[in-house]
Specification:
Rossmann fold; 508 residues; 25% strand; 18 helices; six-stranded mixed β-sheet; alpha/beta
Length: 508
């Protein structure tokens, strides 16, 4: 920690209660100007609730805050922005039907006599995108045409474009590539040098160790303590967050190519994806690597029928005819499950209960007879999965929107486990999940494979794929350029393949 840095924000016994449950319990913390202060904790520890109170998005139940020595009690986000506090949340807050430029300057659109000056808006938007290394994003593009990683960079660009004294980032790199993350890190170092305070929430402990000056750890809503980052190893961080050592999952057995084929993709084409072919075997964990925008997520959507292919198709089992799913319901009926990268929009019914979200896919097949729902069987199945995945919720009837991001992600997985699918398409399955929960997801993937289920897993974290998968297929500029087996892969080789489609003469 820098002893000469000024206290920018001080929290005294800040508490947030929901009925009898305390999401944040009497937390007292100080955040300094010109420092990166990491806020760590397992999902449900209270991190996001705490920073939402700072940003004026959630009201305190008790306690007090001071900003730059003055009492600070925001009643909304505008109060926070007025004193120079900006927040980029884990769940994106963009308007999907507006353009990138309009989202970047929504509160400050350049206009004359009520008419937007489009040329000026485009110019400002390009400058804002350049500052975060995303000059390739068109200011005129509608936000809903961008991938989640690109949307994340747009939201970060919007926050950094406004002058701020305290910047709050909640899992900012969860959907970013390594190159995008490095660009963001460089920008954060510049802000720190300019005296901006930064609150940084991340489950990627290597990032925390590299960036942070100070670390505060929350557990069960309480502050365990604040430490100098230089004195806190990643093992120590994990111990403080979980209260116990987190063990890695079991070593992988070598994958045997002789296992039966359960899925064959041939010449699949649509949108960003161009002529992709691969095979998936029974009990296999196949990783899909590549840069953000390479077509990884789009490939899974084509296989699942969420997007319609313009050429090629899929075969289920050896000797089956080539087909294209025209709707996800066809894929589900064929025994395929998909965990999407954006649980908020595509994976959950946020107003509904934990139980409903867990059993919805299987409702009429497993929990209904003669048009009547067997409520006890439904509840038993939901409770069994919540217990197995260690979902933290008060009751099965709790609205899923009130759960932490990590617990929501567990429910997205749980609904397919109840359905008992044969093939699992996992798109960023550990996005926004804490270290301990991530280990549980890895163990679950291993158990599924051991039970003969087959997994295709997209992740922007190459280390995750190297640790989990039997083979890794690499997407680059919409094409599958190379597939690596565990016994012969290397980090460098996979990264070279990921960039290969963007070199001159290789695009298109």
């Amino acid at each position: 920690m820098n002893p000469e840095a000024l206290n920018l924000l001080e929290l005294k016994d800040v508490t947030k209660s929901y009925g009898s449950a305390k999401a944040v319990d009497a937390c007292s913390l100080s955040f300094r100007a010109g420092e990166v202060h990491a806020l760590l904790g397992a999902n449900g520890a209270g991190k996001s609730t705490l920073v939402r109170m700072v940003a004026g998005l959630t009201a305190m139940s008790k306690g007090a805050m001071a900003f730059c020595g003055e009492d600070y009690a925001p009643t909304g986000k505008r109060d926070a922005e007025a004193v120079g506090i900006e927040i980029v949340q884990q769940e994106l807050n963009l308007i999907p039907t507006l353009s990138v430029a309009e989202n970047l300057f929504l509160a400050d659109l350049p206009a004359t006599a009520g008419v937007i000056r489009r040329g000026v808006l485009r110019q400002r938007a390009r400058a804002a995108l350049d500052r975060v290394g995303r000059s390739g994003i068109s200011p005129e593009a509608e936000v809903d045409t961008l991938g989640v990683g690109q949307q994340q960079m747009v939201e970060i660009a919007a926050a950094l474009n406004r002058k701020c004294r305290l910047l709050i980032l909640d899992e900012p790199t969860a959907a970013l590539s390594s190159a995008e993350s490095e660009t963001l890190f460089d920008r954060l170092r510049g802000l720190r040098s300019d005296g901006v305070g930064i609150i940084y929430i991340s489950h990627r402990l290597d990032e925390v160790a590299m960036l942070a000056d100070s670390i505060s750890v929350l557990r069960d809503g309480c502050c365990v303590g604040t430490f100098a980052a230089a004195d806190c190893s990643t093992d120590r961080m994990i111990e403080l967050m979980s209260g116990q050592a987190v063990h890695r999952h079991a070593e992988h057995a070598s994958f045997v190519d002789q296992r039966s084929e359960v899925l064959r993709v041939e010449g699949l084409t649509g949108g960003l994806v161009k002529d992709v072919s691969f095979q998936l075997h029974r009990g296999e964990k196949l990783g899909i690597a590549g840069l953000v925008g390479s077509g990884r997520s789009e490939l899974l959507r084509l296989v699942f029928g969420a997007d319609v292919a313009t050429a090629g198709g899929v075969c289920l089992g050896e000797g089956d005819a080539l087909q294209c799913f025209r709707h996800p319901s066809e894929a589900v009926a064929a025994g395929i499950a998909m965990v999407t990268e954006n649980r908020k929009e595509n994976g959950l019914l946020l107003p509904a209960s934990v139980q409903t979200n867990t059993t919805l896919v299987s409702m009429w097949q497993r929990f209904a007879s003669f048009g009547m729902v067997r409520s006890q069987a439904e509840a038993d199945a939901a409770r069994s999965q919540c217990d197995a995945l260690n979902v933290r919720c008060e009751t099965l009837q709790q609205r899923i929107a009130t759960l932490s991001g990590g617990n929501q992600q567990k429910i997205v997985l749980a609904k397919w486990l109840v359905h008992d699918a044969d093939i699992f398409l996992l798109d960023e399955p550990t996005r926004g999940i804490d270290v301990a929960a991530r280990q549980r997801i890895y163990q679950l993937v291993d158990a599924l494979a051991a039970d003969g289920k087959s997994i295709v897993m997209v992740s922007s974290d190459l280390d995750e794929l190297l640790d989990v998968c039997d083979r890794i297929a690499v997407m680059s500029n919409g094409r599958l350029v190379e597939t690596f087996k565990r016994e012969s892969w290397s980090y460098e080789g996979i990264m070279q393949a990921a960039f290969s489609g963007y070199r001159r003469g290789r695009a298109g």
